[in-house]
## 1
Amino acid sequence: MTSNIKKIAVCGAGGTMGAGIAIVAARAGIETICYDMAAPGLERARAQAGSFFTKSVERGKMSEEDRTATLARMTDTTDLNDLADVDMVIEAVFEDLQTKRDLFTALNKVCDEKTIFASNTSTLSITEIASGCGREDRVVGLHFCLPAQMMKLVEASQGMNTAPKVFQAAWDWAVQVGQVPVETQDRPGFILNAVLVPFNNDVIRAVEAGIATPGDIDKAIKSGLGYKMGPCELLDLIGLDTQVRLCEAFYPVTLDPRASAPPLLRRMVAAGHLGRKSGKGFYDYATA
Ligand SMILES: NC(=O)c1ccc[n+]([C@@H]2O[C@H](COP(=O)([O-])OP(=O)(O)OC[C@H]3O[C@@H](n4cnc5c(N)ncnc54)[C@H](O)[C@@H]3O)[C@@H](O)[C@H]2O)c1
């Protein structure tokens, strides 16, 4: 599958997801402009890309020449005007509707009329992000998984005004760069999080009810269902504060009681037990 998208920009490329998406694009031969409002984030992301590709060379997955060429395809900027001639922008800025809308509205003035705008949002509506930006027909959802450079899945979605040929172009690009796209509705959580958020809440409620310890629940899910990671381990990795935010995005839209934040989750977050990033969640990482 070949796509006409040869040059992209990643907005929020200094952040967790943007840095990974830029790696995915550049290693597939795409000229990649890494844009962020914060220069230190871009510097961190460049160092991260450098060491990621160094490991790829050490593992024999990439030659030293390819590493040099790939890094040369990635350019950093904090100036939005540098994004004028890209074929597609993928935004991975803060998960905030107004921030994403303002960005697309500003980009609409800067970018060529052919440029596709893709959003990596996890919980916001593609239709709402596109609304009022001035090119609603050229906005799509491309939701990568963390870490994007390791995970193949991309959940692709159309807003109510997305032109089918634009969706197809974004889909073809995802395939071309080696990802595995699946089509999903413009709904919070798309496929994975829509299933995972209530499931993870069920697990938290099971811990709270004393049904089993986090360790035994994880052991059961891993050995019984063949999951690589148990739900408590996964929640600690995602961050328990992030799980609360996901619940807050889902529950008002779905009204599914399983999507509402369990009391234990709220207490853990209030206590600062956020998972790996704080050193304590369902597990203790202080001595790890
Ligand atoms: N972290 C995850 O597990 C994950 C997984 C899939 C999707 N997402 C989605 O990806 C997006 C980014 O999440 P993240 O975790 O990488 O966030 P993050 O906070 O790590 O990074 C966001 C980056 O965007 C930059 N930024 C914010 N507003 C900007 C603007 N107006 N212009 C330019 N740069 C701006 C920030 O400086 C920062 O570098 C969100 O929409 C999130 O829902 C996150």
Note: The mean pLDDT is 96.
## 2
Amino acid sequence: MIETRPIPAFDDNYIWLLTEPPGRNAVVVDPGNADPVLETLAAEGLQLTAVLVTHHHADHVDGLGELAQAFPGLAIIGPRDLRIQGLTQRVGEGDLISLAGLTGRFTVWEVPGHTATHIAFLRDGCLFCGDTLFAAGCGRVFDSTFDQLSGSLQRIATLDPATNLFCAHEYTLANLGFAGWVEPDNPALRSRARTDAARRTHNLPTIPSDLTLELATNPFLRTGEPSVIAAAERFAGHELQGHAAVFKALRQWKDTEYD
Ligand SMILES: [Zn+2]
């Protein structure tokens, strides 16, 4: 059974640390900064055997070189994107990955939208989704399209609702604020906002989330709900047909008027 915990980095990143006790090997996901990873590994006597990378942004990859130096032979696995230096293995849709130190295998999903080559790693009811889906929100669209991000989110929505979702940023309270603009009368959203605000008051992470909670509260996964469609249409000023059109209006609304 793998154990997961967040290593906070920068202002609001989480670098996920995966271990499988009683083994002392460890895997991290998206180390944008090596320092907090090295500190955690040293404090706990762990040996880093592999790194998973979801996409090329600096706050997810800038620790790779230092970690590779500290752990010779380190496996560094990421997408087929030449903007990422230092990968030892480039993977794509449907690839199965075994990692030294962890039993079982991860399945790779290509989830374009935040970036064109963004991937996610799925294993035993856990999805490491980088900046594709956030708790109560989703990533911005950079070198990709709104349609692609909508499609990737719709695909995530098909997973077992019990799936735990490990995103890479603590953006939950801000995202819940925008979700409240979209669905002010959603009781699940109000309840979640209370729970997650209490967690943050005690400096606890709100991640991982799970798909059941996201399906009930994340407007970007609720683009088929009449209340969400109506709110998106009010912003767009015209009728919207289909998930992708509703998604695009919501994303543009948040980008231009919320943050
Ligand atoms: Zn990013």
Note: The first helix runs from residue 34 to 44.
